[in-house]
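Before any further analysis, backbone shapes were mapped to integers, which produced the following:

***
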Amino acid sequence: MKAALTFSLLGLALATPAVAQPSPQLEVRFCPDAVARPYPLDSLRSAQGLLLQNVAVVNRGEPVKVEAIEIELLRAGEPIDSRLLTGAGLGGAVKQAQAAKAGGTFEAAAFQFCDGRLLAGAALTDDTTLETGEAMLVMQQVFAWKGARDEARVTVRALAAGDRPVAGRASVRLDGTTTKTVFRWPLSGGPWLVGAAASFHTHHRWAVPEEFALDIVRLGPDGTSHRGEGAAHADFFAYDAPVMAAADGKVVQVVAGATENPPLLRRPGESMESYYGRIGEMQARNMAGGLPGLSGDTVVIDHGAGEFSVYAHLKPGSIGVRVGETVRAGQPIGRLGSSGNSTEPHLHFQVCDRPSPISCAGLIPTWEGIEVLNTDGPRPLQSGDIVTAPGPR
């Protein structure tokens, strides 16, 4: 346990009537670092949701005690929304980060922290005192608003020895625009259920690379994804469906040689706790298997402008393209499967800013030619949407 540093807020108030000017001693870092992307909660009402994935405060100077972290959302330079973390809020952030460290998340899911770039070699603090070379991590801050916001600004206020105020500040741009690349639906016919998308109530939104990814399954006549009990992959309506390139581009990565685990559905009478316990055990094994264990057989296509589409969990042995090959929108590239970290046959589709399924930040795809059933107007896809699309053109 580190030696305690004692500082006084009263001493700070008496020593200076103004907030300390930002100092290079306290470096504020983000992951993703270039931009944070809001996504519509309700398009008709201009309601937006933002997940600020990671904010790290790295101390490059003498020991300090962090007193407050303020997160502001701005429009044209004017603060509109503000959140202040002090006391228990800071302590909770420290505990959350330490729990992630203890659970092995920093190693097993390094992509969630920009593969080490976020902390930049700093050690994670275990309290609100930052020794030289230590960092405090604030994870997954959620915001919602109506209208526009274009910047998130983080200000850190701390006290050094002698109650001397020290501050740090940095901003990240907010940008909810969709990709320059216009994508077609990578599957034909339908109906297709978007089991997970960018909505907060499903798992994709909480991971940096797949924040705007889709998990797509096919529905049968009775509204389920499979025949009978779904004991075999062939019981699922989506299994072995052709997967097509969603836009013109060049293949830059192919992951092959993954295996398909048996379907992992919830058993009759099984509690959610037990079911997610079984899923957790499977995911731990898959994560230990590296990229094939996570994404399974996968194709990554470069569309230019720093935009890459990812097609994951493909059927083993079905990939029909190779690295360096130019493909056209609608061209078959493989078949839908359940390889890698998959509980049932589905297509995992995402767009990233780097040529990797996991070491990247998610982008919001621009779609054409799809119809979302039972909606009150055109809008971005949400978890639970049912989609139909034309076949290859």
Summary: Residues 182-276+293-389 form a domain with the Glucose Permease (Domain IIA) fold (CATH 2.70.70.10). DSSP finds five helices and 25 strands in the chain.
